[in-house]
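We modelled the chain as a single entity of 754 amino acids. Its sequence is:
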Amino acid sequence: MQFRNLVLVIALGTVMTIGLIVALDSQAGLAHAQPAPAPAAPTTDHNDVISDALGFIRAQQQPDGGIDTFGLGLGSSEGGTARALLALVASGHPASSMAHTTSGKTLIDYLETHAVTFTHDVSGTTSDHLFPQNAGLLLAAAAAANAAPIDFGGMDLIGELTDIYHPATGAYSSTAKGSYINGQADELNQAWAILGLGAAGQPVPVTATKWLIDRQAADGSWMAYGMSDPDTTALAVVALIGSGNVQPTDVAVRKALDYFSTTQLPSGGWRPWWDADPTNADTTGWVIQALVAAGYTPATESWAGSPNPHEALLGLVQADGRIGGLYANAQSTAEAIFGLTEHPVFFLGRENRSLRALTWLNERQNSDGSWSFFGSPDPGASCDAVLAFASAGFDPDTVRATGSSSSAMDYLSSVAPTYVYEFAKSAGKLALAVEAAGGDAHSFGGVDIVDVLANTWYSPTAGAFDNVDDSWDQAFAILGLVAAGETIPVSATQTLKDMQSPDDGSWVDAWGYSQIDSTGLALQALTASGVAPTDPAIVRGVAFLHSQQDAQGGWGNANSTALAIQGLLATGEDLDANWLQDGRGPYEALTADQKIDGPFTSPWFGSTDNDYATLQAIPALLGMHYPTAQTLKPFLDVHRGPDPDRLVAAAPRAAWGHSVDVVVPFGSDVDGDGSVMLDWRVHGDTMWTIGATVHRADGYYTATLPFTPVVAYEFQATFADPDGVQYGNAVLDTLALTVTLENHTVYFPLAVKD
């Protein structure tokens, strides 16, 4: 059979339409549409391949902690080690989990030791001698490892990159000179500087992203060494979108995607101009990063060749786990992992994650300064928000909704006189929040919260606060009083200890539920009041959490995982050393529930953005437990980037076998509320037959339509999503796509009998 003249015609409007016309030469009739077969397993689940690839990289680790990047026995290299660290974290493992078997040195140990020499030329250590691309790469790695970028290996990576920014031109450049690298203004230096700053959650000047956009070539690429280069182009796209300044619908991004389309190889991957291999692992990994940043995730059917980009990388896997062609090595393997994980390298560190989450929360703030839970202003949720901002070092009194003069603290001050008398846990949580925000719980909103806790809610006779059956009343009251500098009665801590289950070591709430959450909270309260980590109650509580930890390293949802993390941190547990499950720990489990634009999700509410999960996750994400007291600074929001809940449309495809098989690819739509409707009609008719049965799979919809060839048919796929449908340079409410597939001809052999 032959397929000829595939023509895609697009008309933009409120609804975009393309028509799929199938002309079939033969004799038969039309049957009813049937459901498509069940989808295969997700095409981006490559855990075994990634595990083997990390095993190969680990085998290249040297006693100094670094990676012998090219396997030539030349010792460790900084660039390969930084890329290995990014691949490790993108794969869901703590940065400290790759350590040399004899020395114990980690990747981050090596990078800190060589930070200054890697980022500066031999003639000096000031910012004038800084290589922007090396500094940007190292900053991205430090951010992914949750290291302090302002004091990394004795240097301030953020400060030095800021020093070499030239506002008049928008370029990051210096006078540094090396054998194969320099500090001059060029595409690589600019892209890596932007990517590093974006990964660290730092604001990137618009003039800096404009400088990079202005260097885009006519074919949509960015150049390296005077040649159009897919690696540099992919890096530029990732940097631009990661900065938050540039949307996937931007003209520059669309031109780059067109460039990737025209340069995609028959293997499904990409390669630079100098490479003779059928596919280059490094290049393909970076291009997938760019496609994912633009919303084409998974980058399989939404960017399908035959094979697709993921299959191209899988075709480069070698027996020892390395990924690449003729010169496969640790660097090609690490950058292939960038593509296989589809985790953007600008969104790996907890600092950047917390900033995007806080910005999302700020956008959810009500005009009176409050936050809502279940639809109405809620003092408890607002206390949680104050604790989240304060945990990140931001003054909650500077957190206001757009256009409002009322801060979070203004709202809490207004409700304090009534809120403190609802429950002991209400007064305790308010005291905890007020103190974290730099206030005084002895005098807030016209109320002495400490006095209310001590004289209204505490019963010396019972030795308890309020409800003796509710560990939350006891725990929050204790935490609030400790935050205010008060001494906790021994009988109060003993009451909380006595509420521990004699069977499994857990605590529960007033209704007998929330074992994980209640245990995490109780551990914080007991340790805050002075109970030693060796106390039997603490030991049994920690053991309970250990017994309940799941295979992903967490406790089933963001809320429970967050409170468990805080409880364990309060008792002095090292989560990266002692709490790993298959190489992944509690922090990795927590971040798995976060979307790239900031909010966390909760299994109780599906895949939608969830206030409650986000409020409780942030302090744990930052490694903070209660009570917390930090130096506070005014809150500044960040660009959160594109919404991953939007549906990103791709052109449908059809193929003729024994029937017509239609594939309608899409990207993004993390919350799963997008939809596709497939309609058909005989070509020339004016009426559509509505709603052929479609089945949602991993990044595509399928339909099997058992038409037998007699006439031509048209098919129209209509995309819809409450979060918007992205296509080309537009985001619409709905979008209909049509494609024309001309005559299908079957040639039969001619048999001649003598």
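As a brief sanity check on the tokenised model: The chain is about 35% helix and 10% strand. Residues 350-364 form the longest helix (15 residues).
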